[in-house]
Amino acid sequence: MNREKIVIIGGGVSAMTAALYLTEQSDWQQHRAITVYQQGWRLGGKGASGRNAASGQRIEEHGLHVWFGAYVNSFKTIETVYTKLERPADSPLSTWQQALKPHSFIALEEYIDGQWQTWPIDFPLLPGNPADGSLDITPWDFIKMTLAWLKKWIFDLQSAAKKANKNIQLSTKKSRDQSLLRHLHQQITDLVDDTEDAWQQFADDIKQYSSEVASTPSLLINTLNKFAHADNTLNPQVYEKKDGLVIWYIIRKLKRWLNSEMIELLDNNAQLRRLYICADLAIAMLVGLVKDKVYRDGFEVINKFDFRQWLIRNGANEQYSANSAPIRGFYDLVFAYPEGDLSKPNVEAGVASLAMLRIALCYRGGVMWKMQAGMGDVIFAPLYELLKKRGVKFEYFHQLQNLTPSLNEQGESFVETIELQQQVSLLSDAEYQPLVNVKKLPCWPSEPLYAQINSEQAALLKQHDINLESFWSDWPSQYENHFGQPLPIKKLNYKEDFDRIVLGVSVASLEHVCPSLLAWDTKFAAQAKQVKTVATQAAQLWLNKTDEQLGWQYIPKSKEGPILSGFSEPFDTWAAMMNLVDKEQWPTDCPPKNIAYFCSVFPCEYYPPKSEHQFPLQVKSQVKVNLEAILEKNMQSLWPLAYQNNEFDWSVLYEISSSGDERLNAQYWRVNVDPSERYVLSVAGSSKYRLATDETKFTNLFITGDWIKTGVNAGCVEAAVMAGMQTARAMVGYPQHISGENAFAVIKN
Question: For the segment 682-700, what is each residue's pLDDT rounded down to a tens digit?
């Protein structure tokens, strides 16, 4: 029996997820042969990390990688990897529960009266395994869940209003509005067992057709929650116009009360201001979900709007809420600034609101989960080990150059050839062994293992400090100048070398690696053009002091360091990563005490041709300037004890042999400008251009990545995992179910 030959190009999350599910059947090798081609020396894509052997085997990441407790498919996948890999119980990170730990403490920064104020949020730990969760939740379910949170906030706000002698007595006079309250009362009469005077007055006014119906904010929100959860309240699948109008009327009435009674109390009360922001944003989202009929037509219907503009359109307070720390923090989270322009934030309203609701309302365990080593160590090393064990073949140092289309006898388009540049030759044509052990944990090194590479090529790579992962690498010219011939090209032919292709490169790479395919397929070309990407920057500092010793003031009960966002540029996000110190290999007598990660977008409007070899170094130098700037100016509000006479104390930076501000040179920073490294955006109106994994014109081509149509449609590991699962299912029918993939579909009766 002839085995189907599958070629996977790229080693990021989506590609490796596809490989995992393509090999889940015990007899898969009887049906398929799978070869992965990867540029450079490691897997990971935007999630690649490396261990720097010259600096304590420290972890060097592309950026900050944190999983959310609502990443159902990601946790299912990594649970599968660790379970099937069966690492010995006494080995480091032998289970996924050891590799990922729940994290509850986040912080947002508010800029109030010229000063940064920290808004600490300690999310509750919830029972359950994220892998057992579900994202198959309808917009109607989200409405009910949001109303439940709004109930808590309104109760707290009413209590504050009462203490401040503000009015909490509400009335409804208009006949139409009274008819809506009458409808609500009819739906929930049997559910109410309330002897409070407010409820009795409310019910009597309705029954007696009074000229005014008396209520309070807490009564209205409590009643509305009962209404939304009542069995006889019609679901959106059986659309009842009056049900939607009831919700709309009450939350808008609550909004008017907030604005009339609470606004003047906010400026001098941080706790009250934050309660107001939460309630106001919840109300704006509820108004939009009802008014724009998201509960009936799905989240796709509002993707034509930018998220912040959609909130404002639905009544969010511009001064306090629309530009609040939670909203800025979310835009920072998804790097939602095309070209890195902070003045032009842009993310689809449907994508953003769905993501926020899922993150807040669908998590299990911790709202976030921290990896207990580098992402390469925690995710990609086990993936590689398992796939290798299963018989998947890996070809490193192969850079995709081109895909060529053709037509078959039936007039169908297909990919006929694959051209790959062989970046190096290995010793004696041996198979490359990519991992190193750090404290018995398999890890990816931060540079190629030169001892396995042809010695003359290895010496040349080191002499010219060649980065084999860079789009702008001058390695081809250096190689040709030295050896008198170009780097060899490996050409793979349809049927002879491959039957089907999984294209797991980034969307920004498409114009460079398959221009002929884009010219052939207009929808594929539109996707490549309309699904935008943005450059990012990241930095890591190793420190001689703990966060508390640096003056950080917010220590939760869990003693967790914060993951903080919404901060000042040039780095708007900081994560305390002290938990990684013991996973690195520092001198036992003087290890660092702390690690800080920073990241943000990187402003970049123009990406030069690959002949501009100095471009990566030029932009990387700006990241160092940005890192100096945040330490010299911005971090004082978070680390006040790291400053003396308002100047940063460089001695808090860890480095054995240097002193003063030279210690900065011993830290790690990078800029992600390569097409394969840039972050995938969800700008307003772009989701409609996303294709499913098998929706190109080419019958033997499957595209995969967080840039295809998934049910998340945003740059994150969950979207990437879902894409890989969809690719495997399209090819072999497994896995059958992918949680949350239909979130943007119209709700069916």
Answer: 999 999 999 999 999 999 9
